[in-house]
Task: inverse folding
């Protein structure tokens, strides 16, 4: 059983021959493998995205793009129809970008995963700042709902492009709604304002022949049944601030857990030793790997913009996972 077959079995909640590792089982395109198309999080090195939001890429965090502080476009959510301009997706050279991103990809061996950055809540935060975004959920829920619906229409268009030009196997929607302590909003607010749009996107992704995957960092386990209701096949980047074993025991026949690595703890720190990183990989495999529907994924904080330095930080995670799962 190769990496692709093994990974797909885990995504389908079936016993896998060995514990899958995201890095070895997928060919990531779009956001995640890099910053993604410029119209989502700006060009490499920072700059304007297709919405007019300016992004910066500081060395802290390995150059991950963030909206430029205090330069937001939207002050009042009730004015979003006049202020927000959606990118023209037809002006983007999808065919050329896909050929470049898929160069060297052996589809028989790995799953092609298209990462779609800036989900509906993240996009609201990028436009007006997270404090104002959270306030708007409470103060103007109807306008937030309508904004989220419009962004979902836009995301479905991207999903169609991912299916057409990348022929992606999976489509990952990145939409963080939680901190390490709890969700940003109450469960009811998520259910009323965000969940319906996550479901509509996932339904469209399935109709396009791709597997819908949901990315959310932080402690969001209280919403696991809601994630399942939206049709997400997997929840990715699940951190151990959640009770991952309980999630696998109780919901492993309904949703796959991708993550486990303590990226916010000692193993994820820039100065973590190689031994600490490798020990954490073994802990994840020993603790979670005995359950179906588990895929190892880990992230390291890297304070550098050098691609080689960033890549080197992940080598111990990948190497230890392959060595430790060999023959399992």
Result:
């Amino acid at each position: 059983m190769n990496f692709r077959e093994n990974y797909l079995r885990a995504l389908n909640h079936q016993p896998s021959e060995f514990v899958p590792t995201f890095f070895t089982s997928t060919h990531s395109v779009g956001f995640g493998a890099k910053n993604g198309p410029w119209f989502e999080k700006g060009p490499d090195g920072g700059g304007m995205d297709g919405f007019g939001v300016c992004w910066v890429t500081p060395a802290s965090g390995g150059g991950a793009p963030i909206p430029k502080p205090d330069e937001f476009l939207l002050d009042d959510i009730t004015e979003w129809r006049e202020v927000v301009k959606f990118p023209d997706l037809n002006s983007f050279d999808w065919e050329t970008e896909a050929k470049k991103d898929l160069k060297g990809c052996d589809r028989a061996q790995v799953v092609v995963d298209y990462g779609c950055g800036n989900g509906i809540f993240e996009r609201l935060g990028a436009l007006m700042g997270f404090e104002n975004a959270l306030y708007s959920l409470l103060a103007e829920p109807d306008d937030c709902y309508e904004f989220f619906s419009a962004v979902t229409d836009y995301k479905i268009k991207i999903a169609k492009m991912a299916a057409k030009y990348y022929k992606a196997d999976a489509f990952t929607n990145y939409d963080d709604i939680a901190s390490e302590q709890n969700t940003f909003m109450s469960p009811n607010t998520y259910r009323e304002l965000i969940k319906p749009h996550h479901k509509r996107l996932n339904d469209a992704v399935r109709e396009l022949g791709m597997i819908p995957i949901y990315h959310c960092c932080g402690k969001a386990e209280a919403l696991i049944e809601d994630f399942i209701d939206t049709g997400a096949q997997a929840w990715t980047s699940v951190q151990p601030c959640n009770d991952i074993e309980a999630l696998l025991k109780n919901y492993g026949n309904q949703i796959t857990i991708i993550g486990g690595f303590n990226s916010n703890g000692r193993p994820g720190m820039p100065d973590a030793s190689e031994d600490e990183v490798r020990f954490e990989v073994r802990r994840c495999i020993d603790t979670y790997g005995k359950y179906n529907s588990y895929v190892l994924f880990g992230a390291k904080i890297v304070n550098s913009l050098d691609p080689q330095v960033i890549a080197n930080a992940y080598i111990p995670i990948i190497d230890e996972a392959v060595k430790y799962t060999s023959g399992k």
